[in-house]
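Hi,

I'm pasting everything inline rather than attaching a file, because the server keeps stripping attachments. The sequence lines come first, and each chain or strand is labelled.
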Amino acid sequence: MAKCPKCNTEVSKPRKTWKMAGRPDRTGKRMQLEIGLFDCPKCKKTFREVLSKKKI
Ligand SMILES: [Zn+2]
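And the predicted assembly:
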């Protein structure tokens, strides 16, 4: 579930998801981020949201 940053409509399903390695933090640990690409059905804006983070 993600919220459109423009009109606040909640979009339940991402059009696309992918995984991306984040930058290492201060201790040198990296996070793997799961990113979702959402399309707002109301205003047609496309936006991205981090769905989950985990250590790798
Ligand atoms: Zn919208």
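The longest strand covers residues 46-55.

If the labels don't parse on your end, tell me and I'll reformat.
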